[in-house]
Amino acid sequence: MKNHSAGTGALKREIGLGSALTLVVANMVGTGVFTTSGFIVAELGSAQALLLCWLVGGLFALAGALCYAELGAMMPQAGGEYRYLRRTFGPLPAFLSGWISLIVGFSAPIAAAAIAFATYVPGGGREPWFVLELFGRPTFTFSPATLLAVGVVVVLSLVHYHSVGLGRRVQNLLTAFKIGVILLFAVGGLWLGSGDAARLTGLFTLDSGLGAVFSRKFAVALIFVSFAYSGWNAAAYLGAEIKRPERNIPLALVGGTVIVIGLYLLLNVVYLFALAPGAMAGALDLGVLAGAALFGPEVGRAAGMVIAFALLSVISAMIMAGPRVYYAMACDGVFFRCFRQVDCARSTPGKAILLQGLLAVLMILSATFETLLIYIGFTLSLASILTVCGLVKLRLTEPGAPRPYRTLGYPLTPLLFLAGNAWIVVHSLTEQPEAGLYGVGTIVLGALCYWWLRPVDTTCSPAREEFAPAREGALSLVPVMVDSTAEAAPGGTSGERTGSDEIFPSSGGSF
Predict the structure, then answer these.
(1) Contact indicator for 293, 274 with CB cutoff of 8 Å
(2) Which one of 101, 162, 244, 270 is CB 3.0 to 4.6 Å from 189, fit for a cystine?
(3) How far apart are CA 318 and CA 493, in angstroms?
(4) CA angle at 164 for the pair 158 and 165, rounded to the nearest 5°
(5) Pairing relation of β-strands 130-134 and 137-142?
(6) How does pLDDT run across 334-387, given as a tens digit for each residue?
(7) What percent of the chain lies above the pLDDT cut of 90?
(8) What is the pLDDT of residue 457?
């Protein structure tokens, strides 16, 4: 009889380079590029500074992808930062990384994308029906937009809860539609749209743009951009299922990031061709405004609907990827055991999917879009900073470890990433202290949850012995072991490091 709590089958290396590359692009291209440029222009007030912000943010993302590529090739397991930090800094930082993934890495971006979807749908921005206030402040908002956003999250969560096959087919269809829409909008807008070409020729005078690069406002604007580029590490979460991970994980991470940098710059050029910076400032629905300016109001409204459906792809992608992290945490014994359960018939981590969906719904009802963007960008920067620090630590403490891929430009590449993200974190705390404090509070709450959930007895006990067989069963089915039949990297990295002493250091007991 199959064990529901342990899973239904081992993960197999079935994802090739093309699929891994598509996964990175699909996870990156979402809400951000359609919604954040207006906030950036409002902060910086310059078209040149807008493009420089997207370029600098892209270079930071590329530096991170190069660093994660080395870690992913060394540890081709699912879970992303959770796996890397468990090896480099131990279970507590790893747990906090997984906690950040649950709250900030997936649930909050799902909520932000759903809010953007509801905003782009005609009529989605109408006045709220009811606002619930606590301690004199609006806490929960009920409106046509929030209810539509909630409905999207519920429906797509149920799709991925139903089965892996249905979720994969829906995801592939939505991603193909999204990429086609973006290319059609960009090429058609520049070729056939009635924009102002003079604004594009003015982009090559960088006097005002360069002056803004070292300002505090530029650093805060990079928070919005970092949210838009989040997802460059998507292939790392599926490391246990990618063929030839020592080769394909680095190529997918780096290649996907380069493609998206070019795509984002192209879309922002289209925005500037269609709209003056003053018309863009503070606008959330830039796709609608740009479409109306290029082709007329009717096309603008139609563009809003098309972009709204394109945003469904990133919502679906995050709903699909996120539960893998919480599932692995539960099987490692540092999260509630119920979230490692897999439905035998559906082969999906149903309870982890439902948990993530519930958190996203609460965020939709309780937060504004701009606050979510600052909160997401700031907190994710902390997690990625620690992960890249782990790369540097491994270079110092394990210089002889097999490394199928070595970070291009090391040590300058990780130093660029760390300096850029530290800059973002410091200035976000000074310019937007409320959202930054929410991020710090999330981490503190995660630490308290770890001390509550962690096993209290690390000695051999009946409870530990009773839990051990179940955990070993889960280990063979969860993305923490490397498929021994996969093609090995030089030095045998694909089949090494499967011992439980590395996967579960100092964990025991049950809860």
Answers:
(1) yes
(2) 270
(3) 29
(4) 110
(5) antiparallel
(6) 888 788 777 666 667 788 889 999 989 988 888 665 566 666 666 777 788 999
(7) 17
(8) 36
Instruction: Provide the token pair at 485.
Output: 């039949």
* String of DSSP letters for 372-404: HHHHHHHHHHHHHHHHHHHHHHHHHH-TTS--S
User: Amino acid identity of 334?
Assistant: V
Asked if 290 and 274 count as a contact pair (C-beta separation under 8 A), the reply is: yes
256, 52 Cβ separation under 8 angstroms: no
The mean pLDDT value for 445-452 works out to 85
- Per DSSP, 481 falls in state S
Residue whose tokens read 């829906």? 170
* pLDDT at residue number 421: 85
Residue in 374, 389, 379 with CA at minimum distance from that of residue 419: 389
Least confident stretch, 209-213, 231-235, 313-317: 209-213
pLDDT for the residue 211: 65
The dihedrals phi and psi of 18, each to the nearest 5 degrees, come to -60, -45
**Cα 149 to Cα 449: distance, rounded to the nearest angstrom:** 29
Contact between 217 and 44 under an 8 Å Cβ cutoff? The reply is: yes
**5-54 pLDDT per residue, tens:** 334 444 557 677 887 887 788 888 876 777 788 888 888 878 888 889 99
All residues at 6 or more sequence positions from 370 whose CB lies less than 8 Å from its CB, including other chains: 39
**Cα 209–chain centre separation:** 29
Q: Which residues contact 423 (CB under 8 A, 6 or more apart)?
A: 219, 222
**Helices and strands in the chain, H and E counts:** 24, 2
Of 306, 37, 337, the C-alpha closest to 184 is 306
CA dihedral 466, 469, 474, 475 (to 10 degrees): 120
Place of tokens 């093309």: 18
| Tokens 């200035």 -> residue | 427
Residues pairing with 133 in the sheet: 138
Per-residue DSSP letter, 477: T
Extended strands (E) in 82-221: 130-134, 137-142
User: CA separation (Å) from 160 to 79, 153, 235, 254, 364?
Assistant: 18, 11, 19, 28, 20
| Rounded-to-integer distance, Cα 25 and Cα 171, Å | 13
pTM: 0.75
Torsion-angle region of 442 (φ positive above 0: left; ψ -120 to 50: alpha; else: beta)? alpha
> The tokens of 37 are what?
């440029």
